[in-house]
């Protein structure tokens, strides 16, 4: 494994000094093998990085946006050229199966393409003024330094969602990745530096330190969160993290974009195409070993089809191939670490206590991989939506619930504190439209006849309630990375006041 990782990182432009001799030990969730020891930044390093980033911002904000887009275009080219290697590294460090590792890098490429187009579309409005000889307009201008905190389960795509937009918006970036996945971050940074060098060699004027990477744990993140020159903190991770970060940023009147935990449900109605529903639920619940913010954690099934659908899910669940994520045919890779496996066992014990009937959920492949943590996917038949069902356990556990009326199903779906993703499987147009209406799902994402996970970058991504309320990626999410100014221009020879106010001298 170690020789392999050195070759892989070298192909991505990373020298061995970047991942050896440090204090942050990196282990592969596949087999527990050591992958490297990365240098950790201190809080003081972070403060110095923010000062450098601010200087970079002062230059970058004056580069025309379409020219900023050219840098992101070149970065997208680097990603295309190195897709296979970076995807492999995602699998080795985060434990994602190969097609999901590739999908993650594809998502980075997609957001770069989106951002390049956006760089020619950063538009404001012209608004009718009530005063003669006046014009009122709105502009979006570069915001400042954007701090990006990311989680282990999307070790590189989440950074790209933020940085591709921030860079075309004229901001500089600082990235504090998960302490569990520093190598993918180092490799991504190397590809970005390569793009930046090509950009400047071709006559571009990108400043040094435009996008910096600082590895480390929560303390380094906190130094970023507290720094008054970080205009926007975009933080992805658990609700616990958001609860710590949100108030600290608010205390200094900074801007925060929070992308936190989910507890996503699929409702299956009597008219649903069960074939589609089974496939959507299985991928949603057990893909990425249940470690997606959009993972399906609850399925709410009409009583008339409940027993049949649960039996089908249970049979299919038991056949999903568990194994090393880099082996062909594997559908379920490892949990990120032993603490995750423990959290899964604790949740299953609580579910049993609260009346649940558990299938699966045991440790798997322990003799082959004694230092890694694989689990069989769990299905838990719950008599009601008890406390444990309302809690996000970041593991492959699917709770099944029964309903009688659609109102009851929607109430169950909305009853949890999180509000990220949701779906309904139905062929009844009234049910589908009700679900996406004002009295339907209260989530940021509400789908019909597809599952809860696997969003495209064109839409705005994020959720309500304890998910944090942030939106990133597509649609008009770019506005979070810019400051809006309203400008009123008087081209007349008089000075009328608004609302007819008189102040004659
Ligand atoms: P985590 O909260 O443990 O860590 C996330 C990041 O926050 C890490 O970089 C960590 O170092 C940092 N951090 C933790 N405490 C901090 C603090 N006080 N100040 C500053 N930074 C701090 O999450 P995780 O285990 O890496 O990821 C899993 C969680 O992330 C799940 O809850 C999942 O739902 C969520 N997630 C949400 C989204 C989304 O878009 N909504 C996407 C991916 C993951």
TrEMBL record:
Keywords assigned by UniProt, alphabetized: NAD, Oxidoreductase
Active site annotation, chain numbering: 259
Enzyme class: oxidoreductase
Pfam family, one: Aldedh
Family matches, as SUPFAM superfamilies: ALDH-like
E.C. numbers: 1.2.1.3
Domain Aldehyde dehydrogenase: 22-485
Residues spanning the membrane: none
A Gene Ontology molecular function term of the record: aldehyde dehydrogenase (NAD+) activity
Quaternary structure and partners: Homotetramer.
Family designation: Belongs to the aldehyde dehydrogenase family.
Protein name from the UniProt record: aldehyde dehydrogenase (NAD(+))
Species for this entry: Kinneretia aquatilis
């Amino acid at each position: 494994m170690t020789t392999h990782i050195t070759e892989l990182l070298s192909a991505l432009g990373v020298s061995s000094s970047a991942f050896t001799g440090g204090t942050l030990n990196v282990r592969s969730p596949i087999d527990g093998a050591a992958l490297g020891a990365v240098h950790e930044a201190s809080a003081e390093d972070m403060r110095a990085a923010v000062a450098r980033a601010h200087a970079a911002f002062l230059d970058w904000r004056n580069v025309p946006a379409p020219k900023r887009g050219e840098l992101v275009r070149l970065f997208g080219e680097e990603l295309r050229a190195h897709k296979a290697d970076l995807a492999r590294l995602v699998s080795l460090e985060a434990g994602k199966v190969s097609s999901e590792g590739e999908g993650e890098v594809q998502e980075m490429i997609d957001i770069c393409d989106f951002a390049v187009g956006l760089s020619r579309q950063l538009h404001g409005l012209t608004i009718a003024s009530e005063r003669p000889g006046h014009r009122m307009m709105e502009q979006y201008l570069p915001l400042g330094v954007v701090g990006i905190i990311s989680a282990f389960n999307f070790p590189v795509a989440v950074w790209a969602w933020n940085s591709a937009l921030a860079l075309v918006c004229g901001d500089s970036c600082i990235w504090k990745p998960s302490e569990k996945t520093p190598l993918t971050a180092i490799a991504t940074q190397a590809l970005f530096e390569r793009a930046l060098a090509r950009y400047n060699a071709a006559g571009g004027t990108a400043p040094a330190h435009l996008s910096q990477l600082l590895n480390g744990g929560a303390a380094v993140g906190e130094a970023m969160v507290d720094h008054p020159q970080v205009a926007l903190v975009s933080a992805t991770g658990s609700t616990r993290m958001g609860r710590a970060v949100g108030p600290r940023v608010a205390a200094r009147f900074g801007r925060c974009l929070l992308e936190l935990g989910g507890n996503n449900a699929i409702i299956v109605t009597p008219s649903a195409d069960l074939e589609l529903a089974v496939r959507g639920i299985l991928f949603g619940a057990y893909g990425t070993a249940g470690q997606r913010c959009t993972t399906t954690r609850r399925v709410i099934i009409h009583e008339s089809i409940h027993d049949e659908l649960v039996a089908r899910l249970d049979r299919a669940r038991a056949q999903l191939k568990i194994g090393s994520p880099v082996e062909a045919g594997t559908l379920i890779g490892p949990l990120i670490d032993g603490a995750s496996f423990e959290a899964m066992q604790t949740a299953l014990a609580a579910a049993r206590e609260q009346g649940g009937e558990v299938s699966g959920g045991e440790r798997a492949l322990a003799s082959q991989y004694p230092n890694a943590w694989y689990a069989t996917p769990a299905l838990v038949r719950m008599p009601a939506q008890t406390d444990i069902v309302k809690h996000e356990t970041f593991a492959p556990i699917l709770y099944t619930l029964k309903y009688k009326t659609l109102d009851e199903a929607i109430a169950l779906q909305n009853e949890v504190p999180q509000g990220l993703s949701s779906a309904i499987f139905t062929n009844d147009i009234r049910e589908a439209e009700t679900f996406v209406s004002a009295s339907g799902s209260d989530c940021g994402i509400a789908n019909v006849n597809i599952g809860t996970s696997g969003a495209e970058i064109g839409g705005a991504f994020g959720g309500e309630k304890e998910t944090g309320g942030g939106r990133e990626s597509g649609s008009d999410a770019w506005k979070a990375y810019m400051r809006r100014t309203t400008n009123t221009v008087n081209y007349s020879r008089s000075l009328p006041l608004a609302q007819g106010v008189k102040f004659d001298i």
